[in-house]
């Protein structure tokens, strides 16, 4: 399989249209994003393009996208990335390649048994009383909220809602799931960052904390909401978007691929199933992508049917 792929790439990838630079696809630090990055790059490679996968954090990706140093980010989530996305999109420095038919949510979350330690959940006001059950030996009695590395207004929210919590920030999705499993195995209280679509809810039944409803005014206008002096006295969006974003270079040099990616769509269920193959079946993101490519050939071939790199007549 691998051998055939390489031969294919050598045969059709040798002549590069409009650019000698490879397409640079962003790989972040959670499963579904990694899988979609591999799916896109596998498609491009099969069409004859040269691809480079670039492992970077969400924080770093924005600058690289706007300076055309990376080309494609397949999962931009409203709950964690809306600020930066809007800013760069408004100024014309990145290109929006459209939303998936998906609704997303990213927020504080707990396995269901935690409700018995903190009656009143999922209402956030319950945390005003029961924060102590989430304390750790080093948190001086404050509750600990376990977050990922993604940009979040968690500390601002804690302040605005006057919650007695501190934030512990972990490095990637795996670190979150290790902590979650450890807590669930011992049925200990835990409050952790989670999102949908994701594989977690199918394995560990749980719920998001219900904070005051999100709005842009909550983020911009201090007088909005329960705290009249501070912004972020609300939760993240409950039905957020999930979109694809590209550099200007990508849409200029590869308009056909940009068109194909903008028509590329997935559902919540599909993204959950893809991420479960990494986190439950223990396949690598690349293996999951290869499986998807094989099983959905007509679907992607149709989207990119006009994008194949062709050799000029003279070259052979
Ligand atoms: C960006 N993420 C889906 C991990 O919240």
From TrEMBL:
Q: Which GO terms describe its molecular function?
A: transmembrane transporter activity
Q: Tell me the Pfam families matching this sequence.
A: OpuAC (PF04069)
Domain ABC-type glycine betaine transport system substrate-binding residue range list: 22-294
- Origin: domain of life: Bacteria
GO annotation, cellular component aspect: ATP-binding cassette (ABC) transporter complex
Q: Which residues form a coiled coil?
A: none
Protein name, as recorded: Glycine/betaine ABC transporter substrate-binding protein
């Amino acid at each position: 399989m691998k051998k055939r792929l390489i031969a294919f790439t050598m045969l059709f990838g040798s002549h590069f249209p409009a650019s000698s630079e490879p397409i640079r696809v962003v790989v972040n630090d959670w499963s579904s994003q990694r899988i979609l990055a591999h799916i896109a790059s596998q498609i491009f490679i099969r069409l004859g393009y040269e691809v480079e996968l670039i492992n970077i954090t969400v924080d770093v990706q924005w600058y690289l996208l706007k300076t055309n140093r990376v080309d494609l980010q397949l999962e931009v989530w409203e709950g964690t990335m809306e600020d930066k996305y809007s800013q760069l999109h408004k100024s014309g420095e990145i290109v929006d390649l459209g939303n998936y038919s998906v609704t997303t949510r990213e927020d504080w979350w707990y396995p269901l048994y935690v409700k018995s330690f903190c009656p009143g959940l999922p209402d956030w006001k319950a945390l005003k009383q029961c924060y102590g059950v989430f304390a750790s030996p080093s948190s001086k009695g404050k509750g600990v909220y376990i977050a990922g590395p993604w940009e979040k207004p968690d500390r601002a929210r804690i302040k605005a809602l006057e919650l007695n919590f501190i934030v512990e920030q972990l490095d990637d999705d795996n670190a979150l799931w290790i902590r979650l499993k450890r807590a669930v195995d011992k049925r200990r209280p835990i409050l952790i960052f989670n999102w949908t679509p994701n594989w977690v809810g199918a394995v560990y039944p749980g719920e998001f904390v219900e904070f005051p409803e999100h709005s842009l005014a909550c983020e911009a206008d201090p007088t909005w909401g329960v705290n009249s002096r501070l912004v972020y006295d609300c939760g993240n969006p409950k039905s957020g978007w999930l979109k694809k974003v590209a550099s200007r270079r990508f849409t200029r040099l590869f308009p056909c691929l940009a068109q194909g990616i903008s028509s590329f769509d997935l559902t919540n269920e599909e993204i959950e199933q893809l991420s479960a193959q990494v986190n439950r079946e223990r396949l690598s993101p690349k293996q999951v992508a290869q499986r998807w490519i094989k099983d959905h050939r007509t679907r992607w071939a149709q989207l990119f049917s006009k994008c194949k790199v062709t050799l000029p007549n003279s070259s052979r």
